[in-house]
Amino acid sequence: MKIYSWNMLYRNKELDRAFDFITKSDFDVFCLQEVPKEFLARLRQLPLHIAFRGDVEKILPEKIVPMYNVILSRHPLVGESEISFDDYWPYLPLRTRLFVQLMPSKYFSKIRNRHGLYADVKIDGVSFRIFCLHIILAQPAWRLREFELAMAERDPAQPAIVCGDFNLLEKPHITPLNWLLGGQVSDAIFFGRERTVIERRFVENELVNPLRKKITHRLSLSQLDHILVSKSFAIHNAKVLPDRIGSDHHPIRVEIS
Questions:
Q1: Whether 183 contacts 141, CB under 8 Å
Q2: Structural domain of 111
Q3: How far apart are CA 59 and CA 63, in angstroms?
Q4: Contact (CB, 8 A) for 226 and 209
């Protein structure tokens, strides 16, 4: 079984090439985050099974931009639902509000209506729960909370595959964002702490991270993007694809059985 995940970037300027990449990829399941509304319409025309929910709404000065989480599958989907994430804006400190207002709105802005998505995929009579997540770029405590909210939706009777952009910051040049976006000073200084904590939670949830220590985002020099799989799966291949196709994230791919 071949699993892909990609944060395609809502303002992607290479949508035709992105569509070509997706349609020609040899996937069983493809999870997408930050899918623009017009691109979702194209995906819905494909001869594939599809589940989608709102990822986030970005509030720009001139308009509200909706984005979507999408699961594409070549196999039947036998159920789907969404995970509601909290609205953190009322709890943000003054420094964070000022930072967001001063930054270009295409990079940082007020957001609302954030969700994760999961669907049950049936392959050869066996059902798997697939999660498609876009965890908040803010402070580590909130990211961990959102991961835990998603894991609360796991069915112990089913193997799980957890895909998405987790926004884990783990390099000293980028972790100051943890403080600027509402965290503690220690969240900026102890740059490896969040990774240590979340990897422990992966293990406790009996999930394997096949792409550990791979770079999936050029600016952060970190593994923001994940495909986690239940430890019952055998992992045959795990790869970060070199072409970002108009996004700031690399697509990732894991083959399992």
A1: yes
A2: 2-256
A3: 6
A4: yes
Q: Which two tokens stand for residue 119?
A: 């669907």
CA 126 to each of CA 77, 123, 220, 234: distance values in angstroms, whole numbers, following the listed order = 11, 5, 37, 16
* Residue 98 and residue 50 in contact, taking contact as beta carbons nearer than 8 Å: no
172 Cβ contact list (under 8 Å, min separation 6): 191
CATH of the domain at 62: 3.60.10.10
User: Based on the structure, what is the number of domains in the chain?
Assistant: 1
161 neighbors 226 (Cβ within 8 angstroms) = no
Task: Report whether 199 contacts 228 (CB < 8 A).
Answer: no
Tell me: the pLDDT tens digits for 5-31?
999 999 999 999 999 999 999 999 999
pTM of the prediction?
0.96
Residue 88: burial class (beta carbons within 10 Å; 0-12, 13-18, 19+): middle
